[in-house]
Amino acid sequence: MVFSVERLGRSLKINNHQTSEALSASLKNFRSQLSNFLNQLVLKSEIPESEYLSLPWFHHCYDTLHMSNKAFAKLVVDIDYPMSKWGNAATEEYLNYSFNLLKLLNSISSSLSHLSQAKLEISHALSLVPNSPSYAIHRLKKIQLKGPRNNFEVEILARSEEMVCSKKESVILQALLVMKSTGLWVLGLVLLGLCSDHIKPSVALLDDSLPEGVESRVCKLIIEKKGVMEEVKELNNAARRLAEITPSERWNDAAKDMEKRLEVLENSILGIENQTNYLFSEFLAARDKLLDYLGHTKHEP
């Protein structure tokens, strides 16, 4: 009998060790996936440096977040720790993480709204060119990107190291730490592109998320481009050329060129809006689901 108990004890220790190794392997795989996503975002061969802050670049930013969310969902399944089983620490951390991303997405939506309004004003000015070109050019103003009043800042805490919790919850907390770092940095780049120099990324990536120097190179590149999305820059250049045309030249041709660029900008705004709204809905649905689980837990006898 004593022998059986001792053997059972050794078996439990082995299984516990295997479980710890499996959890560590799942977390390591998740971190590796997010690192690869960031590498693909920053080092994509089909996106030359000249196209940073253009519509394709913004789409890649959102794709990175979508893939990160899927990787996190897979991690939850792999370690068999669904939201319905989460403890208070994981629940609180996810709610905090998603709340901060929702705030950033709201800021992006606000900036897009300002950009849409500026686009309508340019469109109205262009409609005046055939009958009153001088007055139209007087009303034609350069688009000024507008961002939030204050820089977006958030404190990232390594809660997994501060709180006593289960091994599975510790994995979730560590994964959320990486998710928060990645999500806020990527959305910070999008907001930076829509807000010019009104905002600067204030959340640093984890040290091993990207190869050394890549993060600083991206920020430096964006600053050199003055944080203006490419479609806005091209439209402003077209407006400047139109304003420089003398009365003896043909204003209509220049106006048509601006209208084409205005259409490109409109499609860009629509594309970013759709991505922003979709991601907002995803996070809101996840928060509602988690809060629903939390409500059921509190009402259990």
From TrEMBL:
Residues 225-275 form a coiled coil. Keywords: Coiled coil. It comes from the Eukaryota. This is Protein BPS1, chloroplastic. It comes from Abeliophyllum distichum.
